[in-house]
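#help-structures

NK: newbie question. if I give both the sequence and a SMILES, will the prediction place the ligand too? trying with zinc ion
OV: yes, paste both and it writes out the complex. here, I ran yours:
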Amino acid sequence: MNRVSVRRLLLALATTVVGASGAIPLRGQAAEDSTVALLRQLIRANTSNPPGHERLVAELLAPRFRALGFDVKIIPTPDSTKAAIIARLRGDGSKRPVLVAAHADVVGVEREKWSLEPFDGIEKDGFVYGRGAIDFKGGMAVFARAVMMLAERKVPLARDVIFLAEADEESGGPYSTNWLAQDHWADMNAEFALNEGGWIMKGDDGRVRYVSISTADKSSVPLTITARGTSTHSSMPRPDNAIFALSRGMAKISAYETPLTISASTKKFFLALSKTSKPPLSEYYRDVVGDDPVKARRADSVVSRDPLLHSLIRNTIAPVIISGGFRNNVIPGSATATVNLRLIPGSDANALVSTLKQVAGDPSLEFSIGSRVYASAPESSDTTELYRALEKEAHAVFPGAEVTPYLFQAGTDAGAWRSRGVPVYGIYPYPIDADELTRMHGNDEKVSVASLKQGTEMIYRTLVDVAAKR
Ligand SMILES: [Zn+2]
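OV: that's the protein plus ligand as structure tokens.
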């Protein structure tokens, strides 16, 4: 194909993404509509990790950004199927850049538990279905469309706006943002950044109750518990059976609950939640972060029925893998459990492990901590220009909702910035409800078309606030 055709193709691609009216600056709904079209294409690029194949996403996005005048770099990794993409829209340089980051990989699926194809990008009954609809192809589509709209509408910028799609967030693989930051920090350095994290949470009536913007992540620590016994013929069982020993210890740990541990942002979050709730819940939300330990314990027992809220107020313990044995007539010499600990910033993993040893009550069980998948990083300030803009536009797009900083219950790859002193704010940029939240990393993951539009509007307006020339 000759150069002119390539150019025409690129323009045509850009036109498909921005909608029927093409390269003319767009107003109103049309531009936000194309978030849906982009999300469907991103879902079709199957980036289940492992193995990832994140280069698919870089190659899908690169021509679209180039056609809009972004400086685009595809950053290869030693694994040729994995790449990151950095697209920079230039400002006049009077302010330092703002960055939006989205991981390109998704977790795998249990195909037989899905009622429709997880990688077809299906739009049905007002929802887009597919792996990553929420985590985080949906967010990537919103972030990408919001920065593209700055270019389409020719918004004059005081600072560069950088879009980054990175690899290896979901699997703990080697080519994550931490890897990228070692050699490409200059390309991803910014005054502040947006990433996945907090929630735009709907209540039972479908209205947005609160917008939580994450300012810190919990850290993730893998713990292995091993029981050992005599390996022998299963016709002559002995008392030192490794599987029984492991099971007894695990049963005791299952009955243990960690104490309340409330961070500064968690306190603000629950006070915001209290304001949007009716008694008695409003009182429980207030009490669980309050100073009265008796009231806090009582509130904990109610609040913790919600798994998300439960995870915000304490370190958590989740067995994720159990293994032992290999034949039906051999007693194995060992059995192991992998337990995923999720810690509030400032918590001591070793102290929690010592407690678990005591709880298990069997000195012969071996406990060992693996390397941290997500290291703890300092909390980002809720007074920066970007946080303030998010807060303002969340109020504008979702009137009546509380807006609050938030300790994210899971891990993200924000540590690459936070550990270098760059504040990162996390949001899943679309209103969701409890049912949709359950499907994240689960089955029939979906996000609503209306939510994608609202999210695109909120993020676009936020970027205009922080990056447009005044
Ligand atoms: Zn994610």
